[in-house]
NodB homology domain-containing protein
Amino acid sequence: MKATSYDPNRRVPSHALGWRGATLLVTTLFAGAVSGCSLDQANAEGQIPAAHQESGAAGPSPFVPVSAAPEKNKAPETADALPSGTGVRIKTCPARGGKVVVLSFDDGPSPYTDSLLAILKEKKAPAAFFLKAKKLAKDFPKYDEYRARVKRIAEAGHAVCSHTFSHSGLVGPHVTEASVREDITKAEDLIADITGRRPKCLRPPFGDTDERSLKILKELDYQVILWNLNTDDWRYGSSDREKDFDPPKILDMVRKTLDKSEGPFIHIQHDSEESEASVKMVPQVIDLLRSRGYTTITLQECLGRPIDIPKL
Ligand SMILES: [Zn+2]
């Protein structure tokens, strides 16, 4: 089924503490962000609401180092908790306030990943990539090519996150507790094999989670990253959407959100087999955001937490 809506990193050094230690350190900050949050500024267009990384394997990042957000820039409550409290869905930056934006791209790698990396390098913009990990498995036709692209994403210093293995969704009659767990851990193993880091950031396919999947994600130490700056590029910039195809509308979507709300934002576009036109719009998206005073930050800075751990 084609998604009708959907579909975003900088890691605070975790090696000194280990993931659990780092998690504990930021618990206070995070717990504050989780309670009493304002939800659903996310998908202003009525869509289903649905981290950049200092990779140990990739060497020093070219992007701005993660730093504690100045107190005056501290974000208000930004993540939403399910009533059960089993997990959190992060739609904006818990650790930053003000005019900042995290760029993020789903469904990669793709034939356009290298073009996207070149654009991000040219614009000196960090981004988070949420990878469809089945493309990295040995039975995928472009296995070697796609793995090499993921390596280049990590080496460029961008956040490498999970978008699950199958992309069939973590919610619905087709899944069981075991299959949800497998969909997450298989993706983690494949990504860790390439980057040497286990991603602990994930965007659920179609943005969909339920109590069970959030509980599993929590057990597996995953931060569930959604978005609040929708571009609808799956509609306006996808080669398989002939009827709606109109890439400049991606910019209209961004303008519409900027006109009615302020950051921090987590943006979403795609890096899929159908995303050539969308990727070509990325320089204009970045220019538009910057012309409105926004700074592109890493997912780690947005979260104020690590996004991955060593593979070990
Ligand atoms: Zn997706």
